[in-house]
User: Fold these one by one.
Assistant:
Number 1:
Amino acid sequence: MMPFEKIAIQKNEARESHAVMEEWIRELERSSRYEREKKTEIEESIRSPEGEEYTVRSVEDSNDPVVEKIHAFLTDAFGEDEVEPLSWVRHSIEHRLSFYDLVETKTGEVASLGSTQYLELENGDSPSPPESMLYVAFILSKPEFRGKGLATELYRAFYRRALQEAERRGQTLRAVVGEAETGQDRVRAVIGEAVSSVEPFLNRMGRKRIYFEDERGNVREIPYTCPPVDINKDGEALSPPCHEHLMVRLTNNAQELPTKDLIRMVRAIYKEYIASPANYNSAEAFARSENLVMGFLDELEDALRPAKDGKVFLLNAEERRTRQAELTAKGKEFFDLVIPEPEQDTL
């Protein structure tokens, strides 16, 4: 294939993925219980049938007064010891390392908050990767605002923001990916999304858990490991890793993907956990952190070697029950990751 032909294919794939994202945004708008009025490219007003009014917006300015509210919101949810300093939150917004979208009340209270990252997927030594993904880090809602559909409004904001970024960079947006948190401690109970209460919501958003068929015909959920939440400047883990459910939605609407593509997605997530060498006290400390986190990627690659046809596939809760019944009838087994669930709901 000639270079210009490859470029033409990449541009067409990018346009197709952008069109899919646009349709996902429209689907969420059609299914919303809110009436909406667009204010700017990053802000809109919404009104419920009961007359509740909110503002949904993306935070673009690191000096926006709401950044202090975001930091206070996170501190209240996670605890002061687990939250990055306010200066880092400002830095991540300014340099587009993390994106924050929020729902505010008429009085300016932050009712719901979500954080995402736009992650490029490695493409060999190419300085301009043609593909990317949207990584959903967390959605949090204050208790009194849960059950009002605000998480869905945030998802619409996530999609809109990711689409804008993909169009700006001219990249194919391959997937929406996120960890469905199930760890027992307080941080892991809120920093992600609790499977017991949130999986139906994530399934409605099109995200599904990931499985593969092994050499014996049994089906196994991928053993995804969330790296330690805390790694200090010496590259030492201050908290343990844990298994979690990784959930994916593909923009080509496929229900399977090559294991090598899944590995690329996980590598992109892990690189964010490691951060840059500037975050560490020395090159040795950075290497220590990198070796720790990428060791989990090696373990995942080893676990996926038996995957039939070198592929993994996606299942929502209903599809999972159906597949399990089919396997049982054939004398085969279905293995989910068994992880303790947190007690609290965060949406």
Number 2:
Amino acid sequence: MKIQLIDSNQERVTQLKQMLIDLHSLEVVGVQRAVYTLPPGGLDMMFFTLPAAERWHPDFRSHDAQILATTCDDQRKGFPPLIITGFNLAPEDPKDSLSQVCMILNRVLSAARSYNDQNSGVIKTLGFWVMDLTRGVTAEELSQLLHKELMPE
């Protein structure tokens, strides 16, 4: 499965490309304008925060990223066939941004891999808006988290 990090901040795109060059399963994609509800084409799945995923009626679960199908009408409008949601944090979860982004990456990638195992590798490309992963987290910190999550053991 290929991971795409999508951003309209060209300086950050260049910076992330340099920091993540050794992660062959990851691609950093620059777009002219970040229109949150219109991800670039070619994705099989896109990560959406819970508020952004409301149109697909997610369950507001703690710690569970949910995979939801989009409609044919959604797909005609540019959405991928599947979305994967964020999740609610529990009161005892860490409050710092770095820990929360780590949790998001871990849970989302785990759910996507599990879905692929059960569905013959349907998800070839999973997209994330960089802005969803960098609120309170630097590009360097994001790079470290992605290396930890994506590098083979």
